[in-house]
Amino acid sequence: MILTGPEVKSIRLGQANLAEAHCMIRNNRVLLVGCHISPYKPAAMNNPGDPARTRELLLKKHEVERLMGKLKEQGLTLVPLKLYFNARNFAKLEIGLARGKKMHDKRRDMKERDVKRDLQRRYKV
Questions:
Q1: Residue 55 contacts residue 32 (beta carbons within 8 Å)
Q2: Range 5-99 classified under CATH 2.40.280.10
Q3: Which of 8, 27, 43, 105 is 20 to 30 A from 122 (CA-CA)?
């Protein structure tokens, strides 16, 4: 990942959030979109402007080509899974290929959510 110094320190403090993040490929570059890295307080002057800015991921050319092929052929999506530091203290992002839910799976989840909500209403103290 291409990060600034204060962003690395924020990640070390556990102030990164991948909940709403996703990856996309533009101009043969893999971009991380929507990852929120909170500003590092002691470096107030050096923090980048937007904590949820788009960041570029550093992948080799053959890795990007393989991912582009998978995304085009099978209708998969790139999803960030884990943000960590390796043995050499480089920030790494683990990405995965995910397939979207089918319509019947979505209906089942909606039904389970409704049942849970009804149970909570009935047994609310």
A1: yes
A2: yes
A3: 105
- Digit-by-digit pLDDT tens for the chain (125 residues) are 888 888 888 899 998 999 989 999 999 999 999 999 888 888 877 777 778 889 999 999 999 999 999 888 887 889 999 999 999 999 999 999 988 777 777 888 888 899 999 998 888 75
Determine if the pTM surpasses 0.70. Answer: yes
Burial 84-109 (b: 16+ CB within 10 A, else e): eeeeeeebebebeeeeeeeeeeeeee
